[in-house]
Write a structure and sequence with these properties.
alpha+beta, single chain, two-stranded antiparallel ribbon
Length: 136
């Protein structure tokens, strides 16, 4: 569609292109058995297609920003949470930030000094609610 993105989706949503080269919105409505993917590169066009992966959300919406090179500082958990709190003051529902944390696993102590010691690292997905976002 060759519709003006700012007029179609609003200035707030369009501002995502200040930090992203491309935006992907995956959405699943309860009333529709098909999950859809909307995608745009801010070039005054966008696509909406049924998600080829099927129903991965169950219901709800996931917004994915494909960040520009100079915006990678937004990958910092604290920077993302701070920006979300600052610019989402009037959102009346909770916003969650999904983070991956690496945790050092205790390595078994080995008396044999000839072997190299390797640190084991576990990766754990966590969803954390940004406490001050939403509800005023």
């Amino acid at each position: 569609a060759d519709t003006n993105l700012s007029g179609q989706f609003g200035v707030g949503f369009y501002s995502a292109f200040l930090v992203a080269d491309k935006v992907t919105v995956t959405s699943k409505c309860n009333d529709d058995p098909v999950q859809h993917v909307w995608e745009s590169s801010a070039d005054a066009s966008f696509t909406v297609v049924p998600d080829p992966r099927g129903n991965t959300l169950g219901r709800g919406t996931r917004v994915t920003l494909h960040l520009k090179e100079d915006a990678h500082d937004y990958l910092s958990e604290n920077k993302l949470k701070d920006a979300s709190k600052k610019y989402s003051q009037f959102i009346q529902f909770p916003i969650y930030v999904k983070v991956k944390k690496e945790v050092d696993a205790e390595a078994e102590e080995d008396d044999d000094e000839d072997e190299e010691e390797k640190d084991d690292v576990e990766t754990k997905d966590e969803e954390e609610k940004c406490d001050t976002i939403g509800n005023g």
